[in-house]
Write a structure and sequence with these properties.
Blueprint lengths: L1 E5 L5 H5 L16 E6 L3 E2 L6 E11 L9 E16 L2 E10 L2 H20 L10 E2 L7 H14 L28 H21 L1
Length: 202
């Protein structure tokens, strides 16, 4: 998830328009991947401030078996303009990527989009797309953020086939509150058992 501070009265779909040049996104002549499909930006669910772009990347790997020489990976960029604070309008940006190549392409598209917004005065010249990271929140803020995105996004990016790995652990820079030492001991014991199981399994 990323965010961009907005500075325009225009809707997102009007601000993007149809004149963003998305050619030449892959500028490495020795690259083993190319863009096989890219859509225009479109208003999702007929909402002018909810905009998406879909694309597909083809990777060619001559070292793979004949039936795996060409592989295709899909990606999507989604932008939503929100005015949740009275004096601040932000654009929330989510990227759905299925390979390193689709992530690289998405990042390049966002850089072009950022330049386009600046050139047309939709954002300030100093504005940059910021990644929302763990240290931007306290614990209460993290829970509120995760609750918000899980309730407001109902598309494929929050559906899954299986959980591969989950890891919870206490904050190493904080001490357990008084009376909670039993929880710390239980956590340490569980962690040791898990590591032992993993070692035996491997």
């Amino acid at each position: 998830m990323r965010t961009l501070e907005w500075d325009s009265e225009d809707t997102l779909i009007d601000a993007i328009g149809g004149d963003i040049d998305l050619t030449g996104l892959i500028d490495d002549p020795f690259s083993n991947y190319e863009i096989s499909f890219i859509s225009d930006f479109y208003a999702k669910d007929d909402k002018e401030n909810l905009v998406a772009l879909d694309f597909e990347v083809k990777r060619t790997d001559l070292m793979s078996g004949w039936n795996e020489t060409e592989q295709f990976f899909s990606g999507r960029i989604e932008l939503e303009k929100k005015n949740e604070q009275p004096d601040k309008v932000e654009v929330n940006i989510s990227i759905n990527h299925t390979s390193n190549e689709t992530k690289l392409v998405a990042d390049k598209i966002l850089r072009r989009l950022n330049t386009h917004f600046k050139e047309n005065n939709h954002i300030k010249q100093s504005a940059e797309i910021l990644k929302i990271q763990f240290n931007h929140f306290n614990n209460e803020g993290r829970i509120a953020f995760l609750k918000d995105i899980s309730e407001s996004h109902r598309e494929n990016e929050f559906y899954f086939n299986k959980i591969i790995d989950v890891d919870f652990h206490p904050d190493e820079n904080a001490t357990f509150p008084q009376g909670m030492e039993w929880l710390e001991k239980k956590y340490r014991r569980t962690q040791t058992q898990r590591d032992s199981w993993r070692f035996n399994f491997l």
